[in-house]
DNA sequence: TTGTAGGCGTTATCAC
DNA sequence: GTGATAACGCCTACAA
């Protein structure tokens, strides 16, 4: 593999000068610089990041820990973070943890050996002790989507509780009283908080959900089954803690011969692209996914460089997107 | 940052012995080994991959180049590859290129400086010269989803042409004669091949598509617009070159008051999770996305290690998944 | 303006 | 069994 030495030989000079042109540091005569640059171009030479890191340079590596990227919400999030980070000069390890603390721990060990400069994580709920080694080494951690207890240096987490309230309130405002709730994965902190928020809002009206159905995985098929269970309790409206859950519910209702929103109102959460492209179009609470990813990248960058000039963006707000799956209940 | 030296001091021994326990090489007495292991555990020490690479070890790094991961097809693909690769001992840089050769080139330069051991790529169509430096260094490249002309060491690319034929044939078998085609992104090799295949199948029946609508981006909204254009030509059936395209078309048809499949048949391609969860459920050609990802990972591993014992899996077949969006046309 | 040399963390080679 | 040590590729004093 070509090294700085190869280039030096090619350009008939010393490694120091090559390093100087590579880094635009110190003095190099125009003539020498030209020779060196041509040698670099010829060889397609790229200096070894490893040697640079070893020498004491920053790694410009960051770890991104997400439950998955085969679910669109996280795919969008991952891509937006990776792009923003790349533009800031970092390269990312995007890791899918399947909500498993064991997997997270494995990836954390990898981050350590790769000397990542920072981590962005949407961690599984069950304990976060495996983040301790990162903290011990002063490696900044930005929590995204879910809090990380004492381990995060910064948190980009929307107000899931409020989100839950908004869903419930919308249905309440429409006049619904028999409301069911479903969602997954049940161990996810965001799901739990939305659930808590929704229940709280119902509670304020002296109501309780007629059924709460929680599942393990983030997929349509399971949501469909949960919805079948929920619908057995004859709600007039249904809260999907995610759009996936809500869309699964639309299908379950359809197969039961229910008309939406006439017989059943459904509201979701996230506003993933599919939400606007199901029939009927899904009413949902939108979170600005890409925007959150960009903010997380910026914050991590700020933490890594300790550069106070990077601005602290406020978290964008949640918005109710009213589409075609919610309406007042039929008067009894 | 703790190093092997720190551990040696802690365990009152030399770096050589620490290295020996780290790598299970050479002789270490049980007593010494215990001391060293405890020092390692105490410190949460992880040896620097950079130093290992520098020393001449393999980097165990691989680059994954995909147009995006915010589109579910690629998100699933990326995750399956990353997982399989991680289990094989590799860490991946998952990079979203937005179908841009310039972006690809930037990532390739990064791969070079990071000394990746291999690359998996679904490249944009426009030329692949920027892969030359990888080839020059003998870094294996596995093409996935799309061929890479002369640059790939191996190719995991389904027969898109056949896929196109299968879509057309299904509609032809049903009795359709006025068939429109839509899809995106139009510069994608896979899209072009499916289109070619579909046209060829129509041609064998002496037919031509009544309309071909191609777009730039992989999203529902654009597909919706394309479908509006296509439907102006009054086809009885419509081929979506991707499920995204087909789902956009379902909505366009719905908004035009068309009943599916009575007034219009629609077939898609890929069988992404949403395909089974739109109404009506989408008939489509399934490609086993995860499986393809696993195969790509295996093949790359084989190329990196040149270990002939890794089996060559055959590419899995395409299957028609008949759901509810296709039916015979209404007799005129 | 250019060149020489040391050291970053690791492993392999060689002595002891 | 164990411990020095050279070398990997790079950057940065420092010397010339």
How would you describe the overall organization of this protein?
Two copies of one chain form a homodimer. Chain A is an alpha/beta fold and 332 residues long. Helix content of chain A is 43%, strand content 15%. In chain A, strands 7-6-8-9-10-11 form a six-stranded mixed beta sheet, with helices on both faces. Chain A has a five-stranded parallel beta sheet with strand order 2-1-3-4-5, sandwiched between helices. In chain A, α5 (72-87) packs parallel to α12. The first copy, chain A, starts with a helix and ends in an 11-residue tail after the last strand. The model of chain A has no long low-confidence stretch (mean pLDDT 95). At the A-B interface, α4, α5, β2, α6 and α7 of A face α4, α5, β2, α6 and α7 of B. The first copy, chain A, binds a DNA duplex (16 and 16 nucleotides) through residues 1, 3-5, 13-17, 19-20, 22-23, 25-29, 32, 47-48, 50-57.
**CATH superfamily (homologous) name of the largest domain in chain A:** Response regulator
Radius of gyration of chain A: 26 Å
> In CATH terms, what is the architecture of the largest domain in chain A?
3-Layer(aba) Sandwich
Low-confidence stretches of chain A: none
Tell me the series of helices and strands of chain A, N- to C-terminal: HHHHEHEHEHEEHEHEHEHEEHE
How many separate structural domains of chain A?
Answer: 3
Number of strands of chain A: 11
> Rough shape of chain A?
elongated
Largest inter-chain interface?
A-B, 56 and 56 residues
Largest sheet strand order of chain A: 7-6-8-9-10-11
Into which percentage range does the β-strand content of chain A fall?
Answer: 5-15%
């Amino acid at each position: 593999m070509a090294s700085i030495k190869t280039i030096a030989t090619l350009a008939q000079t010393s490694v120091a000068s090559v390093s100087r042109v590579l880094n635009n540091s110190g003095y190099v005569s125009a003539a020498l610089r030209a020779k060196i640059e041509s040698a670099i171009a010829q060889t397609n030479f790229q200096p070894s990041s490893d040697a640079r890191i070893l020498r004491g340079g920053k790694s410009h590596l960051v770890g991104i820990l997400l439950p998955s990227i085969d679910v669109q919400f996280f795919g969008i999030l991952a891509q937006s973070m990776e792009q923003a980070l790349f533009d800031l000069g970092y390269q990312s390890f995007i890791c899918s943890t399947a909500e498993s603390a064991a997997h997270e721990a494995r990836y954390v060990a990898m981050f350590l050996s790769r000397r990542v400069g920072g981590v962005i994580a949407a961690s599984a709920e069950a304990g976060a002790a495996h983040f301790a080694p990162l903290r011990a080494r002063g490696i900044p951690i930005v929590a995204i989507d879910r809090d990380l207890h004492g381990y995060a240096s910064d948190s980009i987490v929307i107000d899931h509780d409020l989100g839950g309230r908004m869903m419930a309130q919308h249905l309440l405002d429409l006049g619904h009283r028999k409301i069911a709730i479903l969602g997954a994965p049940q161990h996810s902190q965001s799901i739990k908080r939305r659930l808590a928020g929704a229940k709280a809002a119902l509670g304020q009206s002296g109501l309780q959900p007629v059924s709460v159905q929680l599942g393990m995985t983030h997929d349509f098929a399971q949501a469909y089954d949960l919805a079948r269970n929920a619908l057995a309790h004859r709600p007039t409206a249904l809260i999907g803690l995610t759009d996936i859950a809500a869309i699964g519910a639309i299908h379950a209702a359809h197969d039961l011969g229910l008309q939406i929103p006439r017989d059943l109102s459904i509201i979701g959460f996230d506003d993933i692209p599919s939400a606007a492209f199901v029939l009927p179009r899904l009413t949902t609470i939108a979170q600005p996914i890409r925007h959150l990813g960009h903010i997380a990248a910026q914050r991590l960058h700020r933490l890594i460089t300790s550069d106070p000039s990077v601005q602290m963006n406020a978290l964008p707000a949640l918005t109710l997107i009213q589409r075609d799956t919610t309406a007042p209940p039929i008067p009894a």
